[in-house]
Amino acid sequence: MRLEIVTPERTVYEKEEVQMIITHAAKGDIGILPNHAPLISPLDPTIVRVKLNDQLEEKIFVSGGFLEVRPDQVTILAEAAELPSEIDVERAKAAKERAEKRLKNKEKIDAVRAELALKRAMNRLKVTEI
Ligand code: ATP
């Protein structure tokens, strides 16, 4: 099964043959094996785990977008996505603090926007830790 993760700027990840993809889609956690039923789902900021074989697993952060599953091909169209090595940890920590402060002060903020920013920052930090 082929996997492609693309953003408006670039192809972040592309593999011709992956064993399994695990992520969190709209209806909950999902594990995708070859020959999965076709599916389209929106994605919140999350981590995509890619099992290449029984030993090797890679992780990619996606900031939200869409997941398209076909029997032999999975495509993720993301607003932004990064490999763990590409993440600026200090920037993510600062974004997390900013979002937390906004949510705590509550006044005149767009809570949904702040919660999504917090989710992005927390998942960016998490993908660099594991
Ligand atoms: P910030 O408030 O720090 O900009 P953000 O969550 O609002 O964070 P995004 O809108 O998700 O940022 O991303 C904007 C661009 O910056 C994308 O190209 C994304 O890949 C990149 N980016 C954002 N945060 C980081 C980070 N911590 N490390 C590396 N690249 C990042």
Account of the 3D structure:
This protein is of the alpha+beta class. It folds into 2 domains: 2-82, ATP Synthase, domain 1; 87-128, ATP synthase delta/epsilon subunit, C-terminal domain (Single alpha-helices involved in coiled-coils or other helix-helix interfaces), CATH 1.20.5.440. 28% of the residues lie in helices and 40% in strands. The chain contains 2 helices and 10 strands, in the order ββββββββββαα. The protein has helices at residues 89-105, 111-129, and strands at 2-6, 11-15, 20-25, 28-32, 39-43, 46-51, 57-62, 65-70, 73-78, 81-82. The strands form 2 sheets. A 5-stranded mixed β-sheet has the order 2-1-9-8-5, with no helix packed on it. It has a 5-stranded antiparallel β-sheet with strand order 4-3-6-7-10. Helix 1 (89-105) runs antiparallel to helix 2. The two termini are 24 Å apart. Adenosine-5'-triphosphate (ATP) is lined by residues 63, 80, 82, 86-88, 91-92, 95, 117, 120, 124. Residues 63, 80, 82, 86-88, 91-92, 95, 117, 120, 124 line the site of adenosine-5'-triphosphate.
